[in-house]
Amino acid sequence: MQILLLLLIILLLLTAAYLFCLKPNTKRPQQMAPFAKTYIAHRGFFDNTSNRPENSLAAFQKAAELGYGIELDVQLTKDGKLVVFHDPSLERMCGINQSLSDFTFQELQKFTLADSSQTIPLLSDVLILVNGRVPLVIEIKPEGNCIETARQLSSLMEHYRGVYCIESFHPFVVAWFRKHQPHVLRGQLSTDYKKNHLKQTPIIRFLLTNLLLNWYGRPDFIAYNHRYASQPSYRVCRRLYPVVNAAWTIRSQAELDKAKSIFTIFIFDSFQP
Fold first, then answer.
1. Percentage with pLDDT > 90 across the chain
2. β-bridge partners, 122
3. Do residues 82 and 149 lie in contact, with contact meaning Cβ atoms separated by under 8 Å?
4. Which positions ≥6 away from 51 have C-beta within 8 Å?
5. Other CB atoms closer than 10 Å to residue 125's CB: what's the count?
6. Could you tell me how many helices (H) and strands (E) the chain has, helices first?
7. Residue 59's CB: how many other CB atoms inside 10 A?
8. 3-class DSSP state of 22
9. Rounded to whole angstroms, how far apart are CA atoms 141 and 168?
10. What is the DSSP letter of 203?
11. Which of 84, 90, 169, 247 could, after both became Cys, cross-link 96 (CB 3.0–4.6 A)?
């Protein structure tokens, strides 16, 4: 009997610890409302076969003209400039098999994006272009010194008067904003790391897939890969806590229609909703 009681106590403690780790911040859903009022164009409203490639000024201009919110990616150059670019490598978008961080901003201007005349933009130029017309979802890439990226982004955004939030796959980035810029809306990006074939150690993959570092960053929203919306911990999180849920990345009207039963914010590309 004593053994059963001990096992029960251990089970209750583990359950309590699990729920504590999983809990996001649920106090600011109204501040997230602008992001649910329009669809969010992933890397801008882009077409990589045109002169409007992803994460380009042209793609952001088109998204703003159509009234879509904009999701974009930021990272630092060799000389510490905050630029908008997704991949750690330039190979896919610029045909150069080197890391973006190997180049200064001026050196990067020698390369064009895909088959276009567009070049990698500074985030400051994107902010001038958008000028608060639509909400921005800014993803801080985990590559390189992501905490320094967070610091620089925070400093730059102090002067921006439009609606924006930040998100990252790296929980430490989310936690940095919780500690240093608590007024900024912050989101935890995640997915099923194993099914998504993302390279992480088994322990890190388990923690991130199951959102078990939410206790550290207490994100205002969860942006989860919509294909894995049935992942058990993610289901528990959204059903137990009234957290704002964002779907990434929707690539057809059929996917969008299906996702509407679960998510409230929708990040899309490859079609026009």
1. 91
2. 83
3. yes
4. 58, 116, 117, 118
5. 13
6. 12, 9
7. 30
8. helix
9. 6
10. H
11. 90
HEC per residue, 203-233 = HHHHHHHCCCCHHHHCCCEEEEEHHHCCCHH
Q: Which amino acid is at 216?
A: Y
How many Cα atoms within 13 Å fall on the side-chain side of residue 10? 6
CA pair distance 169, 73, nearest whole angstrom = 12
Tokens of 2: 């004593």
The amino acid at residue 108 is L
Which bin fits 240, alpha (ψ -120 to 50), beta or left (φ > 0)?
alpha
Q: What is the pLDDT of residues 185-221, one digit of tens each?
A: 999 999 999 888 777 889 999 999 999 999 999 999 9
Binned at pLDDT 50, 70 and 90, residue 260 comes out as: very high
Q: Of the candidates 94, 73, 80, which has an alpha carbon nearest to the alpha carbon of residue 170?
A: 73
pTM equals 0.96
Instruction: Please enumerate in sequence order all residues whose Cβ is within 8 A of that of 127, keeping only pairs 6 or more positions apart, or say none.
Output: 156, 160, 162
The widest CA-to-CA distance across the chain, in whole angstroms, is 75
Q: Which residues participate in catalysis according to the annotation?
A: 42, 86
